[in-house]
Amino acid sequence: MNRRPAFFCCLLTVLLLAACNGQPIQRKDGSSSVRNFSIKDLAKGDVDDVVEIHQKEVIGILQALTLKLYRRNPNEWRKSGFSSAEAATAALFRPLPLWHVSAHKNIDWESPLRNLWRDDFSPDRVRALMTGLLIMHMAAFNHQTEFYLLTEIDAQKLYNAARNTEAIVWKLSTAKNQGGEPVLLSNGLDANGVANLSFEREFGKLIGIQDVLARVIENKNNRAIRFGVVNLASMVFLPI
Hints:
This protein has one domain. It has eight helices and two strands. It has helices at about 5-20, 45-70, 75-80, 85-95, 110-115, 125-140, 155-175, 200-220; strands at about 190, 195. It is globular, with a radius of gyration of 21 Å. Mean pLDDT is about 85; it is low at about 10-20.
């Protein structure tokens, strides 16, 4: 059997896929949406690409929120011994490239999200909050960072992560210490008395991304999402 035609067909397919790059999006910060073609892309479906894009957006929002919270609450990064908000943020997300072998995926994400609001909680509250959110959202993706045709993603986990995040946003906005001050500063008024709602916008994007992706996966798997809410008073989260 002559295998040369089949080989050249496969080679032509690879070359065509490599050449089919659309016009990349140029962002304000100078970054681009373009990415290099990899042979691994042949094992991916359209939904797999969608999942990876959404996950990268989720991680990017979590990084932005971490940096903003550290800048708003500088005493927290000092508790962890870092020299700046930027250094503390970078350290929190350093395990991501090797997340599949990182011990972080085995850490309980619920406890820090419940305990950091206590008056007697002495460690870095921002680190506790964002570590819990990062692990929870990565758990919603089954702790994977690459997705292929046979990869299983559960729409229910994505939906639950969005609802849990809503509960955290409520807690962040309402939690006060014994002195009546916010446990963590987030939204507020600037020097001119103008409301700064940048935290709310970032959290809103995070929740929206997870909800849209949950619907995409629900449609793909033909498995209905069970709708639920978090008990805000007890902060009993939906399972991931």
